[in-house]
Amino acid sequence: MFSSIFSKYAIKSTARHQLMAPQMLLTTPRRFIDLHEFQSKFIMGKFGINVQRGQLAKTPEEAAAIASTLSNKGGLILKAQVKAGGRGKGKLTSGLKGGVQICKTPQQIQDFTKQMLGYNLITHQTPPEGLLVKSVLVHEGVDIDKQLYLAILHDRKNQGLCVVSSVKGGMDIEEVAKEEPEAIKVHTIDIRVGLTDEIAAKVIDSLQLTGKLREQGIEQLKKLYKMFNDLDATQIEVNPWAITPEKDIYCVDAKINIDDAALFRQEDLAQMYKDGAGSTSAADYDVNEEKAVAAGLNYIALEGNIGCMVNGAGLAMATMDIIQLKGGKPANFLDVGGGATTSQVKTAFEILSQHHQVKAIFVNIFGGIMKCDTIAQGIIDAAAQVKIDVPVVVRLTGTNADKAFTLLDEFSKSNKSTMKLIVNPSFDSAAQTVVQAAAQ
Amino acid sequence: MSIFINSASKVIVQGMTGSEGTKHTRRMLASGTKVVGGVTPGKGGQVVDIDGTSLPVFNTVAEAMAATGANVSVVFVPPKFAKAAVIDAIDAVMPLVVVITEGIPVHDSASFYTYAQTKGTTQIIGPNCPGLISPGKSNVGIIPSDITGSGPIGLVSKSGTLTYQMMYELRDIGFSTAVGIGGDPVIGTTHIDCLRAFQDDPETTAIVMIGEIGGDAEERAAAFIAEYVTKPVVGYVAGFTAPEGKTMGHAGAIVSGSSGTAQGKKDALEAAGVKVGQTPSETARLLRAIMGRQQ
């Protein structure tokens, strides 16, 4: 029997640099809402899904008061609320080891909370200085007899939905897929008919649940499916889906991804996301990423030294690839989109020039709807207000490219800026030029 | 010939009276597309003048089709109303619906896609795509019409600007049709649908396929090419340097059986006999070599 070992299961609240960044790249403009654990648990509770009872506290006294209302039979769990994984193994700047504590009494909860609130929690997913803990979650532990795995997600292959189930819960499911693929079952759902009784029963039977647990499993699965649809989720992953000695089934840890394109009809979630972001340290977010989001730009900071400004996610990725191929390293992904204004271009330039590692900037634009002279004017406006002391290589092709070159040429000759501007209409040779410029 | 559209295509614009719709109707007309009207619920009966062309506005797609004989619809309706607009087109038995709108919730796309599958009478391209162009014949969407002219190359791509870049690289040869299928998790027309159409199109003699990291569409396309396509295909995949991470989450990778990485896609395409370029220009060079065309 596994007893109250939830400290291992810090909710996978997707540190941005671990999961969100590549997601953004993959699906172009989509971001996923990133919720705190207490928010996920609260939402699941509202849908009638079994989660451990508990509440959020902002003071040690409040934490103790919450603990005194809970059953300590399976232990009392205290978790620092920051949006990062690896909290159990993390370290607080107060000296406390572990952002997740298993306690027996409200007094213990209060003591540990004192060592969490107001301090930074450092885990392998946080910035080196850690993230400020502004609140803690206090909830009941439950004893676990058996751990299962369950996920509901969009299935690209069948352009529908599927449920993934496994009796091998509580561990990395990709490892299970490698070691024991037969332990994972994928059930396709036709969204026109939804999750039928027949499929629900098939899923639960694949998890070898019988009697009372079989009924509860079917009922809980249906609630999870309803939540998936009602919340515009793109994925819900429950791991472990845990069975207690009393034969109840609990979502002990869950990762919920919400489609941000649906926020216009998910007002509660939008608000929750806003609140959640507010309780996270600013250090969680790259300042430039915040600025980019505010300006409607799609920006991700990377490790290299060549700043990139490109229109379109595909061309932006191709630009990063070609820089690497020529021996350079991109400092970022930045897609200014299809209809950028001069002010957006100016902001993009500010962001790039503030990136301290940047040794050269590469502007790569294929003008379609986007006019090349708009980009050129944005560069000129930026140069007037921001000191840009690294070489800027500009490659422009397409709509109004000639106009753009004239503007840039006049600007270079006017001595209004000390900016070193290199114009090159060829994608390949411009990339070569910028890599050389950055190496100097 | 061309695929999906031709010089006889009669196009209606859903959302024509909105700013995006108006802007792109103007561009489509300027590139010679036969735009015959627009649909905006509640604005039926109005007439919009766009650069000297009077276009009637209808409340529904069915009315627009009855009055104009339109056989293609292009959708510029905002995300909130896009699902209803596409369903309206499917109910009207519109043969081809090109959804340009970006930011449609995946649940909505999945819903109208499966609805179209059930009816079996409407092909959807997109959403979140630049549309398609058969240069000199018809231009449905937002692809610039002045990059290149008509020719023997067929192109299918997830990405908009990479489509433009590749058309530019091969502008001296020209294209039968270039299709931007979009990169959303749920899309109406896939790489495979386009590859099949290009294989069956007598005017197309060579095919360029552009992919991106994420999903497993390229891997499935590779299997399809090995089985069905006899015309030469060259490929390009963007995203080799994208930051590492769980691209689709654990469960997603398990369901697709694919890592979703650029390298995985390149390997799959090469195993199917597709030459894959490391850059857009190298891809263009590979195609030239196959076609025996000097630059």
Automatic annotation (TrEMBL), chain A:
Localisation per UniProt entry: Mitochondrion
Entry binding sites for ATP: 79, 86-88
Cofactor, how bound (note): Binds 1 Mg(2+) ion per subunit.
Binding site for Mg(2+): 239, 253
Domain ATP-citrate synthase/succinyl-CoA ligase C-terminal intervals: 309-404
UniProt GO MF annotations: ATP binding; magnesium ion binding; succinate-CoA ligase (ADP-forming) activity
UniProt keyword annotations, A-Z: ATP-binding, Ligase, Magnesium, Metal-binding, Mitochondrion, Nucleotide-binding, Tricarboxylic acid cycle
Keyword Nucleus: no
EC number: 6.2.1.5
Predominant subcellular localization, coarse grouping: mitochondrion
Residues bound to substrate: 311, 368-370
GO biological process: succinyl-CoA metabolic process; tricarboxylic acid cycle
Reactions this protein catalyses: succinate + ATP + CoA = succinyl-CoA + ADP + phosphate
Residues in ATP-grasp fold succinyl-CoA synthetase-type domain copies: 34-242
Matching InterPro entries: ATP-grasp_succ-CoA_synth-type, ATP_grasp_subdomain_1, Succ-CoA_synthase_bsu_CS, SUCC_ACL_C, Succ_CoA_ligase-like_bsu, Succinyl-CoA_synth-like
Role: Succinyl-CoA synthetase functions in the citric acid cycle (TCA), coupling the hydrolysis of succinyl-CoA to the synthesis of ATP and thus represents the only step of substrate-level phosphorylation in the TCA. The beta subunit provides nucleotide specificity of the enzyme and binds the substrate succinate, while the binding sites for coenzyme A and phosphate are found in the alpha subunit.
Subunit details: Heterodimer of an alpha and a beta subunit.
Annotated NCBIfam families: PRK00696.1 (NF001913), sucCoAbeta (TIGR01016)
Family affiliation: Belongs to the succinate/malate CoA ligase beta subunit family.
Name of the protein in its database record: Succinate--CoA ligase [ADP-forming] subunit beta, mitochondrial
TrEMBL record, chain B:
Keyword Mitochondrion included in the entry's annotation: yes
Pathway in which this enzyme or protein is active: Carbohydrate metabolism; tricarboxylic acid cycle; succinate from succinyl-CoA (ligase route): step 1/1
GO annotation, biological process: tricarboxylic acid cycle
A GO term for molecular function: succinate-CoA ligase (GDP-forming) activity
Residues the entry annotates as binding CoA: 17-20, 43, 100-102
Family: Belongs to the succinate/malate CoA ligase alpha subunit family.
Function: Succinyl-CoA synthetase functions in the citric acid cycle (TCA), coupling the hydrolysis of succinyl-CoA to the synthesis of ATP and thus represents the only step of substrate-level phosphorylation in the TCA. The alpha subunit of the enzyme binds the substrates coenzyme A and phosphate, while succinate binding and nucleotide specificity is provided by the beta subunit.
EC number: 6.2.1.5
Annotated residues for binding of substrate: 164
Name of protein: Succinate--CoA ligase [ADP-forming] subunit alpha, mitochondrial
Highest taxon, organism lineage: Eukaryota
Domain CoA-binding: 4-104
Source species of the chain: Halteria grandinella
Annotated active site: 250
Subunit structure: Heterodimer of an alpha and a beta subunit.
Keywords: Ligase, Mitochondrion, Nucleotide-binding, Tricarboxylic acid cycle
Subcellular localization: Mitochondrion
SMART domains from the UniProt entry: CoA_binding
